[in-house]
Specification:
The protein is α+β, with helices and mostly antiparallel strands. The chain is about 35% helix and about 15% strand. The longest helix is centred in the C-terminal third of the chain and has 12 residues, at about 100-110.
Amino acid sequence: MEGQGLRDRASDFSDLGAAIVGASFDSVEEQKKFADEYDFLFPLISDPERKIGELYGVARPADDPAVAFSLRTSFLISPEGLIAAIWDQDSITDFQTHGDEVLSVIRSQS
């Protein structure tokens, strides 16, 4: 999962002044369990009403068999609060090196 690739490079993100934040449709309790299981030390946003997911276009249609899950997507948000880059589930070719890809884009925009 892409979160592990980001987690593994957390210190590199911090060195660049970037923060990692995750979001899902899970409850706070489910996220806590998930974060503990996978050693995610970055914040996770609970969006069970799918409001954030709808705004970012990652909520699946109601008739999708996997409607309970968001589309796997990473967003790079600039210091100005604008979306600077998007990686959707089709463009993330290797979850383990995904963090490197994001870091490369951050460095190129610095």
